[in-house]
Amino acid sequence: MVLETDNSLILFDFIRLPLKFYSAVGIKIFQWDADDIMTTKEKCIFLLLGINFIGCFLAKSLFCVFGEFVDTMQATQWILYFMFAMNGCCKTISVAIGRKKLYTVLKDIEGIFPATLKERQEFRLAHNYGYIMRHAKIMSIQHCSIAIMFIAFPLVQSTIEYLTSADSEFVTRTPYIMVYPFDATAGIGYVVGYFSQFLGGFTVSCYFVGSDMLLMCTIYLVIMQYDYICYRIENFKSRNYEEDMKELKIVLERHNLLNIVAETVNEVFSISILLNYMISILIIVMISIQITKGSEFGLDMIKFVGFFTSASTQVYYICMFGNLLMDYSSRVSESLIGQEWYWTDVRYQRMLVLAIARSQRPSHLTAFKFFTISMESYGNLMTTAYQFFTLLKAQMEQ
Questions:
Q1: Is the pTM of this model over 0.85?
Q2: Which of 97, 267, 279, 314 is deepest in the core (most CB within 10 A)?
Q3: Domain boundaries in the chain?
Q4: What percent of the chain lies above the pLDDT cut of 70?
Q5: Spatial distance between the Cα atoms of 187 and 192, rounded to a whole number of angstroms
Q6: What is the pLDDT at residue 223?
Q7: Who's near 264: CB < 8 A, 6+ residues apart?
């Protein structure tokens, strides 16, 4: 069964899931092949959800002008929802701007994707596919569960209060804090407002998950290639000078291509990663304030605890795959040093020294060149968020 899976997988399978999230909101990031065209249905979905998202964004933004916050906790909620929408929007815009570069990167990787069954087994293709899909599904299921909870929570809360309270009055609530040019607290206005916010929440969730998952899957495709290079180096057996040099040339050309590919991926996502890092700090701080000061124990508490977990997990995964990229790319130099070079021709050994020198610098993701994305940066993010949280909490208590 594993062999059949190894033999059937193609590169597109690794990016199919994130592209489905984009497709759900009518976005076609790039045309993968001649048959992959944007359908009329996708165009209609894109137009409908795009107009609705812009309307929701304006309704949320204009609340500062025409609305009135009940208290500080409602203001922190508004900031939380606004920054989350901004984050998802920035991620998708970043991918859209760099879509041509990203398409070129994926096609370059497809050009060196394992073709024979032997190569696929050496790549451990089925194992790697299972690994990235497992993490992608964990992130998407977790995020979508929280999104559904936020959308459904007002109705559930109002229904429970209606059924358990003495007075038979249904209190209308909406998922997010917005202002409308019509009465959105009763009748058809309430239905329209609620449904519009439902579509807006669905749209920004697809933007958010699709972008992060596409980054994860693309980086993991590069990681797989670095791992395969290390496998070839570590299993190298000297034959003769010509054959040895031919193998070294293949390894170095592939390694050089992967370095270029990794750098291009970093160019596409670096601004998005920086904005994501800064906005995530603010989101985590606002969620923490809601958990500790604004939410009573119950459904409201569960909602924000889940949101906190989802926001932390999303940043964790980006940092984790950035860390994996550094680890696997740095292994190439170690593998070259550890191969059986002592059985080879002296001329090969001289070339190997140059190859080792060229492979010293690992590939990495950066937040627009400000800092490298790794598990250390994740720890720094959580520490910074905690410091801002304690400061803001102290200010609110005074």
A1: yes
A2: 314
A3: 1-397
A4: 95
A5: 9
A6: 94
A7: 101, 102, 104, 105
